[in-house]
Amino acid sequence: MPKVNFKLSDDEKFNALMHLLNPEVTEEGDWTVSRVISAVYDDYALVFDYAEGCYIRAYYSKNDEKDMIELGEMVKCYIVDVTEQEKSTLETLRALNGGTYELVSEVLTDAQKNFEQVSEFSTKIEELNETIATLSSEKADIEAQASEYSAQIETVNNTLTSLNEELDSLKQYKLSIETL
Question: In 3-state terms, what secondary structure has residue 85?
Fold first, then answer.
């Protein structure tokens, strides 16, 4: 006949954890409950410790072959009173931070610094764009003036050419009168 192995049910995990968390049993069979389980998850239980007045994450591991639960590290944790909107924000922060709240403060500080740098750079970009607009306007004015000066120079050159031609003509006339 084949051997049948049953895995621990959630109820059996709860009961085993409850006994591991509260091992104080007297000879008369009285059981002292100093910790109570609020919720059981895949790898830890959320526990309230009456003596300490705090919540604890009690990590555990299952041994399906021996149908046993073994307690692991117990870490103090905090339950936070938040609204639904605040909870949504916290879940977003957790998701953006790799599924943990650890170091969120550092990440937010870095994000704040980055935001400030982006704001500073945006301001500088606006200032530089204004400078570019001013310089472009001045360049257009200078080009217009240069074009105007070129036209004036061309007029002066034409006048000079015309006067030189007239001068040459007068010199020729003078020479012809003098040689007569």
Answer: helix
Q: Which of 12, 75, 8 is nearest to 47 (CA)?
A: 75
pTM of the model as a whole: 0.49
CA distance 60 to 73: 8
Rounded Cα gap, residues 24 and 114, in angstroms: 54
* pLDDT profile of the chain (180 residues), mean per 10: 54 83 76 88 92 94 83 92 91 81 71 85 94 94 92 93 92 86
User: Of 79, 112, 142, which residue sits at a domain end?
Assistant: 79
Within this chain, do residues 5 and 62 fall inside the same structural domain, yes or no? yes
Structure token pair of residue 91: 């879940």
Q: By the 8 A CB rule, do 76 and 61 touch? A: no
